Amino acid sequence: MVLKPLEMKMLADIRRLILDLHDEVMGELKEIKGILTSPATDVPAEEHRLLNASLSVPEALATRLDESLVQARPECQDPNNFPLQLGMDAFQHYFQEGNATSETDSYLNLMKCLWIMDKIKTSTEFKRLPDGSLWQRYVKRMDFRLAKEYDRWAASLAPEPDMDTILRLPDDEFRVWKTDDEEGGDELIGGDSVFLTELLNINLPSEGGKSTHKLRVLQNVDGTIQVQDTASTTSGNREINDVHRFDAYLDKAQLIPIYASPSSTSAALNIKFKSDKDSANGISPSFGNLGDLLKFQEIITGYRPVLYRGDLHVECHSSAKFSLTGSTTKEKGRVQIWQRKRPAHTRTKNEGSHSSTASPMAPIESDAGPQNNPGRRLSKTSTSPTDKTFLDKWRRDSTLSAATFSTMEGSVSSTIFTGTNISRLDTGSGTVGVRMDRPEMPKLVLFLESKKTGSLSFLSVAMNENTFINEQACDCRLPRSRCAIAVIEHSKGPLSARRIESKLGLKSWNLASLGTSQPPPKPDPHALRDLRWVKLQFASFEDKEKFRVRFNEVHTIYKNRVADFYRHMEIVKGRNVVTTEFRRISTND
């Protein structure tokens, strides 16, 4: 039997998944056995030291978490009412994400775990547990693991993230539990989709006598996605399912945002998605709410929309350097702010598996509001955190000698970089290098329609460090002004922007062309060289203010992450100057 390369890769990935699942199950069994058989007394000296260590959450961060908790669960205004089982589920969720690729995420997850554990230990439900009970042992075991993780983090000398940066994060980042509408996430699923990862599973509005209509998006082991559009009808006592299933390569996919057509007055949330522009495989779903639509869009583009506003009048002014004249286009439009999608917390094929612990008992800002932003799922069953540091995972994947890695010890071990992608480079001389990529810039994306010709286009403006809202260019400079205009400029020259025009109208208005899977060629034929400013006139002062606030929040977070990137690069460079090769990735302002 002759296997094609793709089939061989798929079989190898499936085998790796089976081994990972086996290791994970064995880890769970060992953990449960340890909880069940460990004595309630005679705690080892090291464990006793860690359990008695003074661990605290910064007061400002604890206050923010308290406010978020009371807002989500008013009954928790009394600290004694903190739920035990739900609290441990949340603890395990954030502990498992403790070694995130972002330093801010890693630190915030660790602080959340400390805060949750403190709430649990002071709750009435925990205090009523009998000595030596299973729940008591379970909580103490996880408290020990938390203290050990905190001890490891402190010993790593990792720079503590700036608290001002953390406190500027959106409110969603401080919630302990996700809402039911936001649940849904990266899970291996069964049935006919074994070894696929579920990215989306939502209900669509039913039509034409159909009882239910569902849309699922799965990720294949080869990185492609599988779209399943299922319409169910009931005939007597039988349910008949009509399933439309197809695979799509994101680097060829076509996403037409019908809902964002600037001249449309319809409130329908429609899109058209095809595996590629010439394929017959596609769907044209109508979504029930904007949040579900933006989740699907995020999967296709790789960017998370954090703001959406419509009913704009847009002016774009272009002029050459030192020129007193130029050209100005006037268009109708809609606007979104995109942030790069955060790295998924799912395990990659090279990471191996981590032990898990089952619970010991079975007890965007947009027109629709920020609650529609996609979120991660808090698993119904608790899963244990990983005890592996970043260096452990790196060491497991590497073919370099142990001596080589000993020279790296203390440099990147357990140091997590804010918004920075890190990869190792084999220099070919027995040494190892570190490559650090700058955080990816957020984008301002405009959906435009020319007032003169009616032609459609996208305008993507990079929100780099020097992009800003110039409040001196409109009536915002006046006291008590209710100006509804925002002017976007660059402090050091023209804006870094791309305009992609649709030659065939709505038929070729492909939003996926702005996504991460369809990067522009070099040189970019769609790049704008002399775009000096973009003026956005909103329907109301309130809309402009919401845009301004979210623009500045996203921009500030990005600038702080860039500053952290350079600071961390100097830290690593200072510790590994002999054995580490540094390559600074060029970026265009």
Keywords:
589 residues; alpha+beta; nine-stranded antiparallel beta sheet; 21 strands; 30% helix
How would you explain this protein's 3D organization?
The structure is a single chain. This protein is 30% helix and 22% strand. It has 589 residues and is an alpha+beta fold. Among the domains are: 1-28; 302-374 and 387-589, no CATH class. Residues 325-391 are annotated as: Disordered. Residues 369-387 have a biased composition (Polar residues).
Task: Supply Rg.
Answer: 26 Å
End-to-end Cα distance, whole Å, is 53 Å
Strand content: 15-25%
Given helix and strand content, the structural type is alpha+beta
* Biggest sheet layout: 9 strands, antiparallel
Count of alpha and pi helical runs: 12
Approximate shape = globular
> Mean of residue pLDDT?
76
Give a count of the beta strands, DSSP E runs of length 2 or more. 21
Low-confidence stretches: 180-194, 343-363, 367-419, 577-589
Give the strand order of the largest sheet, numbering strands 1, 2, ... along the chain: 17-18-21-11-12-15-16-19-20
Percent range of helical residues = 25-40%
